[in-house]
Design brief:
Elements lengths: L2 E5 L3 H13 L3 E5 L2 H10 L4 E5 L7 H10 L6 E5 L4 H9 L4 E4 L4 H14 L7 E4 L2 E4 L4 E4 L2 E3 L3 H12 L4 E3 H9 L7 H15 L9 E4 L3 E4 L2
Parallel strand pairs: 1-2, 1-3, 3-4, 4-5
Antiparallel strand pairs: 6-7, 7-8, 8-9, 10-12, 11-12
This protein binds calcium ion.
Length: 224
């Protein structure tokens, strides 16, 4: 069972979310505006925050920025009514982990929530497995079956960033920061090339990636 904070001002949507999440076995707390939501998130421990963008008193972007600045790393799933790409990118750049566009299907909502809760796994883990792939953080190696994959240092860093944030959508800029470090001047196209290389090594069918999936207009998500 997980504790989930829902920050949503429309009572109908808030109630439906509450019902749905309780039904899934989670404990739910509702905040009806951004200020109350931000305060609840700072004062109590939650496993996940579902955060609407359009909120009275403080919008979802502001709440997200404030929490990340305060060092709160609880996974955040943003609910956006807007379909503009720029809004989604802004949310992710401010530290949200994933977003859903309203109106969303309940299956999709549940799947996203499950993925985000799964990724809240310990960061100090020494080993992570998905499919027939094994990521060994102690030896900085990736194996597939009995074969040790020849990953470059950059590819390993990308792999590690993905594993540590399963279910999260990464923009190319965020992957660039994670693998190359800040203040390095390379183009985002280089990120795409590295992803192609990585997929070739870890995906069962690199042309139809199952683990490192493209998120249209935004970047990539690891569903391992
Ligand atoms: Ca709203």
């Amino acid at each position: 069972m997980s504790r989930i904070l829902v920050v949503e001002d429309e009572p109908g949507i808030a109630l439906a979310l509450e019902d749905d999440l309780r039904h899934e076995g989670h404990e739910v707390e509702i905040a009806g505006d951004g200020e109350t939501g931000a305060r609840a998130a700072r004062e109590q421990l939650f496993d996940l925050i579902v955060l609407d963008v359009m909120l009275p008193r403080k919008d979802g972007f502001e709440v997200c920025r404030e929490l990340r600045r305060a060092g709160i790393r609880t996974p955040i799933l943003m609910l956006t009514a807007k379909t503009q790409e720029a809004e989604k990118v802004l949310g992710l750049d401010l530290g949200a982990d994933d977003y859903l566009t309203k109106p969303y299907g309940h299956h999709e909502l549940r799947a996203r929530i499950r993925a985000l809760l799964r990724r809240a796994a310990p960061e100090g883990a020494e080993m992570y497995r998905f499919g027939d792939v094994e990521v060994d953080f102690v030896r900085a190696e990736v194996r597939r079956g009995s074969e040790c994959l020849d990953l470059s240092q950059l590819e390993f860093k990308l792999m590690a960033a993905f594993v540590h944030s399963r279910g999260r959508v990464f923009s190319r800029q965020q992957l660039l920061d994670a693998a190359w470090g800040r203040d390095v001047f390379i183009t985002e196209r280089v990120v795409d090339n590295q992803i192609v290389n990585l997929r070739r090594k870890i995906e069962p069918d690199p042309a139809n990636p199952r683990y490192i999936v493209s998120v249209r207009g935004l970047g990539y998500r690891f569903d391992g």
